[in-house]
Write a structure and sequence with these properties.
A hairpin with a 2-residue loop joins strand 1 and strand 2. The radius of gyration is 22 Å and the shape is globular. It contains 22 helices and 2 strands. A two-stranded antiparallel sheet has the order 1-2. Helix content is 63%, strand content 2%. It has one domain. Helix 7 crosses helix 20, helix 10 runs parallel beside helix 12 and helix 15 packs across helix 19.
């Protein structure tokens, strides 16, 4: 095929996706579902049962969880507080998933003693929907900043080249709902920037604040991003910024009030989880006692947890962080002001005593909430990447590798890496072993069968 024909086919595909935008949702969604199994962990379990209990009883308490999941010792993901069994994780992702679970609960397909097949798959289905929607809103945001082809390319990078595929989309972790609300927030903000009428501008400013607050309801660390965005909105929009700040502050206050009422601390269930650090991960010390430089290296270049190892195309976001300030178009200004948000998140993750995020997942997990920000920064330099062929080829190569690595996680995880030749909990230097890392181990273990 000659160059002109290839260009014509490329443009035809781009036009097809934008003429039928539902494809931007359904293509990633079907890819997420293609492995035919849920890839989760204990942390995702209480979120699924919050959804079940809401549909069944209109309650967020998990008092009868033992009848569904028999246990002799209370699992780490739940605890007894104020006379009830509660999730140690935020409730909002489960509330969001309740409409997906409800029809199956009402049809009697999730009953005590029935096993975990149905609710596990509904957990995966919910997560895949949330994550694919995140990709849709991110692509729509990007389209208002760069070309249609660039928006589709970076949208695909976002949904398939990062941990959104093997982690966020595979089970009801907090991450899928989180990135959905960040993507909605950014879409609303770009609509604020392009709004022709004051009423439209105010409406989208309110939506962006609600979305930022909803992200906080999904995961507490998102509070760092919401705080940065509140300051950015005040700087950018002055008095009208209250439409962003107020809903974000109200939703954050709801989360903190619930945490204080149930757990006796604004930190919520994190207080319980931190008390289990030794039992779960064989580590002792204050929650944020990891040396910063060591943690930063772990977050970025660890062969089994580093985001630049699993998604090396994200290296272009570092360039974007510097270049976004020089963008002449004023609609970039609000996103330039968000740069402290992912940096604060990265520092928090790096200082955390369990910087690797636990052993029951593939690759980097803590950094997932950073990805919506980083993709926007890559968009800031996208025209320059496309204009210089060596840069474009480098980006394509790194993205192709990133997608392949995520495919390994979606289809080949788990392997025996976490316990062979001995448990990583006994020697955390294994996170720095380049010869026997998690990617290579999962690849060698082969594709896992559906329903496994």
């Amino acid at each position: 095929m000659n160059t002109s024909n290839a260009s014509f086919c490329e443009n035809k595909i781009v036009r097809l996706f934008y003429a039928h935008k539902i494809l931007i949702f359904f293509v990633p969604f079907l890819i997420y579902m293609a492995n035919g199994r849920e890839i989760g962990g204990g942390d995702a379990t209480p979120t699924a049962f919050v959804a079940i209990e809401i549909a069944k009883k209109g309650s967020v308490f998990l008092d009868d969880l033992h009848d569904y999941i028999p246990y002799n010792k209370t699992p780490s993901y739940i605890s007894e507080q104020r006379g009830h069994i509660v999730s140690n994780y935020p409730l909002f992702p489960g509330i969001m998933a309740a409409p997906v679970f409800a029809p199956f609960v009402w049809l009697g397909m999730i009953e005590k003693g029935d096993g975990d097949l149905v609710w596990n798959y509904l957990s995966k289905l919910s997560a895949a929907v949330f994550t694919a929607l995140a990709g849709l809103f991110m692509t729509l945001t990007l389209r208002r900043l760069i070309s249609m082809g660039g928006a589709l390319a970076l949208g695909a990078a976002y949904t398939l080249g990062t941990a959104l595929w093997p982690i966020a989309s595979q089970s009801l972790w907090q991450h899928g709902p989180s990135v959905l609300w960040w993507s909605v927030c950014f879409y609303a903000l770009i609509r604020v920037e392009s709004a022709a009428e004051k009423r439209e501008r105010n409406r989208f400013l309110l939506l962006s604040g609600l979305a930022a607050g909803a992200a906080v309801l999904c995961r507490t660390i998102n509070g760092a991003g919401a705080a940065v965005l509140c300051l950015a909105a005040l700087h950018r929009y002055r008095l009208p910024a209250w439409r962003f700040v107020l809903p974000a502050a109200v939703l954050t206050t709801i989360l903190l009030s619930y945490n204080c009422a149930i757990f006796g601390s604004w930190k919520g269930g994190d207080v319980v989880l931190h008390s289990l650090n030794w039992e779960l991960n064989r580590v002792r010390g204050e929650p944020f006692s990891t040396p910063l430089l060591f943690g930063l290296a772990g977050q970025t270049i660890s062969p089994s947890r580093g985001m630049f190892v699993f998604s090396p195309f994200l290296l272009f976001s570092l360039w974007g962080m510097a270049a976004i300030w020089r963008q002449p178009d004023p609609q970039w200004r609000i996103f330039a002001l968000t740069i402290p948000a992912p940096l604060i998140m990265l520092i928090v993750f790096s200082k955390f005593i369990i910087w690797w995020g636990g052993n029951a997942h593939y690759g980097p997990r803590y950094q997932i909430e950073m990805y919506p920000f980083l993709i926007l920064y890559i968009a800031a330099v996208w025209p320059r990447i496309v204009a210089f062929k060596p840069l474009l080829y480098a980006f394509i190569l790194l993205l192709a590798y990133s997608i392949f690595v995520q495919w390994i996680g979606a289809f080949c995880y788990p392997s025996g890496w976490a316990v062979e030749p001995f448990s990583v909990s006994l020697d955390y230097s294994r996170y720095w072993d380049w010869k026997y890392n998690q990617i290579w181990s999962c690849w060698k273990s082969g594709i896992k069968s559906p329903f496994s």
